[in-house]
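Subject line: Sequence and fold of a protein, written as structure tokens
Body of memo: The sequence and its backbone structure tokens, given next.
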Amino acid sequence: MNHLSSSFARHEAAMRAHLSFHVPGAERPRHYMYQPEDGSPQDSGQYEIRAMTILDARRADFEPELDRQGFRLLRTDTAVPNQVDDGDWIAATYYPPMAEMARRATGADRALVFDHQARRREPGQITAGFGRQGDGRRPGAVGRLHNDYSEASGRARVAAVLARQGERMSPHSRYAIVNLWRPLRGPVLDAPLALCDASTLSVLDLNPAEVRYRERTGEIYLARYTARQRWYYYPAMTPDEVLIFKQYDTQLSGTARFTPHGAFDPLALPADVAPRHSIELRVLLIHH
């Protein structure tokens, strides 16, 4: 009996739901974070919606680890931020305790929070997309299965964050970028986050894609389906819980380096369930 069927048999700790995978094509997919003025589609590329088994990570037969599965669950007593639209306030009051939590949880020598995003899904907003429509000012849950950085953009972002500190990348240090994902209210029933077990992922499952902002173009990975992948989620997350998951790691072997993830719609939700509101921080971890 393999690991998946063992989990089913003992706990029935899984659900069936639909996930949005990328289908490789001749052209590189791109997504605009705004409505292009030239009439180009805001979202290009081919995608397929697959009915998948998503395992309950709370009831797995093992404790997920950041450097193996690419994710783990943390708990915090830091208050939920109440001024999520005030970037300066978030940076001054919320970044420091969360950076320290990430540092302690990972054993890194330093942790630098360099970005954040609050997401509020609107009632009726589709999940199987990039979470932005129209002018892109109201980001919702992102359903495209993706990793926030590619090999190239991950390294570039590490260098850029260090440059803000007046530093350069050292060949003797290890750098990793993680997300700290947390509900702003809970329990989260609408649009929970599915994560791919990085130990079941191949780099061949990752396809580069462009994300275009008005001032720059970024690169992410989109996930393609393979039967080997295993997907997990944490049911009913509450605001005292924080998901930490890997987005990039300069260590080339022996660790999770990318963790594709995306929101999904559980089946048979009550009609009046509250749309998901969440906040995510991106953190650079430095191991000297």
